[in-house]
Amino acid sequence: MALLEILKYPDPRLRIKAQPVTRIDDDLRRIVDDMYETMYASHGVGLAGTQVNIHQQIFTMDVSENHDQRVCVLNPEIISKEGIQYEAEGCLSVGGGAYDKVERALKVRLRGMDLDGKTFELDAEGLMAVCIQHEIDHLNGVLFIDHLSRLKLERIRKKIEKSERRE
Ligand code: GNR
Ligand code: NI
Fold it and tell me: What is the DSSP string of 96-152?
C-alpha cells in the first residue's frame, strides 16, 4: 500500500474528466487500496480518482465514525435526486482551510459497479448524499468552489494564497 499525492487547486489536472473503468484487474485493485489509505490518512470522508491524478471513474468513501463502512464505486451515476440541503463542504484538494455551504440534493439514488464488476444501487441522504455528489463532481472536473459566488471564491483564493505564503 502507498500514500498517493493529492492534487491541489488550482492544479489544471483537477479539471480532467475521468473515463469509465473498463477493466477490473490487480492494478485497479491496488489503486483503490491506495485511495482508501490516502483518504483515511488525510481524514477525508471521500476521495475521487481525479484528486490523485487517476482519471478513471472511481471514488472511495467512508462517512462512518469508526472507519468501518468502506464504499468504493466504479462508474458512478446518480439516477434520481430528491429535495435540497445546504451544508458546509470542504475538500482535500482545496487548501487554506476553505469550506463553505453548497446547495445539493438531500437524497440521491446512486448506481455504480463494485470491484467484482457487479452493478449495484445505493440510496443515500445527509452527509453521504453530499459526499457522493461532491465526488462525482470531481470525476467531471468540478470542485465545490465552482458552486460558490465570485465574491466567496475570491475570499477563498486569498485564503489559499496566504496559507501558501506561510508554508
Ligand atoms: O473529507 C471531506 N469532507 C467533506 C465534508 C463535507 C462535504 C464534502 C466532503 S468531501 C471531503 C473529502 C474530499 O475532498 N473529497 O473529494
Ligand atoms: Ni473533494
Answer: TT-EEEEEE-SEEEEEEE-TTS-EEEEEEEHHHHHHHHHHHHHHTT--GGGGS-HHH
Summarised one tens digit per residue, pLDDT across range 127-158 is 999 999 999 999 999 999 999 999 999 999 99
Q: Which atom of ligand 1 is nearest to the CA of 102?
A: 7
Q: What is the pTM of this model?
A: 0.97
For 12-166, the fitting CATH number among 3.40.50.1950, 3.90.45.10, 3.40.50.300, 3.40.50.1000 is 3.90.45.10
CA–centroid distance, 147 to ligand 1, in Å, is 14
Q: What residues flank ligand 1, with Cβ below 6 Å?
A: 44-48, 51, 89-93, 130-131, 134-135, 138
